[in-house]
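Quick log. Single chain, no ligands specified.
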Amino acid sequence: MIFRALVLSLVLALSSAALAVGPDEVLADPALEQRARDISAGLRCLVCQNQSIDDSDADLARDLRILVRERLVAGDTNAQVEQYVVDRYGEYVLLNPRLGAHTILLWTAAPILLLIGLVALVFARRRHHSSGPEGLSEDEAAALEALKRGRDAP
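-> predicted structure:
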């Protein structure tokens, strides 16, 4: 019983992406269909925002999938199809943003912040270790010796 439920859950989880693309959208040419799937996997659904248009059931995602296939049938290359969609909807539609002058901060912010944090941690540890007491003063040493002798005495 439990095994059947696990198998059914696994099948449903793995088939969710295949359910998004309707049978009426699939191209007859398998090579073109594979290219369409490759392009669609890199385009963001503007409704769902965290899914590719290939995985989304939203109407806009369906329209974008059809648009991608129409452009491929018209003879566009993968790059031309992607650029057409970007020109129409902006770079936000790309799941993986392009590296450019306008996105350099996006690509470098995390490593820079990590480096700043590590440098701050090193300086904080050095300051913590160097600010400790250097030794006992003469009065403190004498008081410590007196305490030690007091314990040794019966």
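Residues 137 and 143 are 10 Å apart (CA to CA).
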